[in-house]
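Task 17 of the worksheet. Students: predict the tertiary structure of the chain below and write it out as structure tokens. Keep your answer in the requested format; marks are given for formatting as well as content.
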Amino acid sequence: MVDYFLRPARADDFPAIRSLIRAVRINPTGLDWQRFVVAETNDGLLVGCGQVKPHRGGTLELASIAVEQDFRHQGVARALVEDLLAHYPRPLYLMCRSNLGPFYERFGFQVVLPEQMPQYFRRIQNLAGIFGLLRPGVGSLLVLRLV
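Model answer:
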């Protein structure tokens, strides 16, 4: 088990955040270091990150949850999600690969039908389907909501 702590991101964390987001192949748009919480080892290594991203109309999205490969399955993602959930109002939306749905459902998130989605999420889900933006084997794109 790795020793790490959570803290608000700093400007000098942005290159590591961007690199991690690209490495795990999730949506790199809307990255603003000021919204991020990071997980850092006692040695100063950034091993995880996450943010809550605002959208038009006041919709909030739990986004950019990413953990370095060597630090997965050690509670880092869970800690990041719990920390972010503790600081933001509901409802919160999130978009993830369908294989990650059960992870987020443990926090109370529920799958949202297309007709219940804010426009932004409906548009992204449609684009992912049309352009095949997901790698084979990871399923479809889910939109979930926590109320």
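Marker's comment: Residues 39 and 45 are 8 Å apart (CA to CA). The first strand starts at residue 4 and ends at 8.
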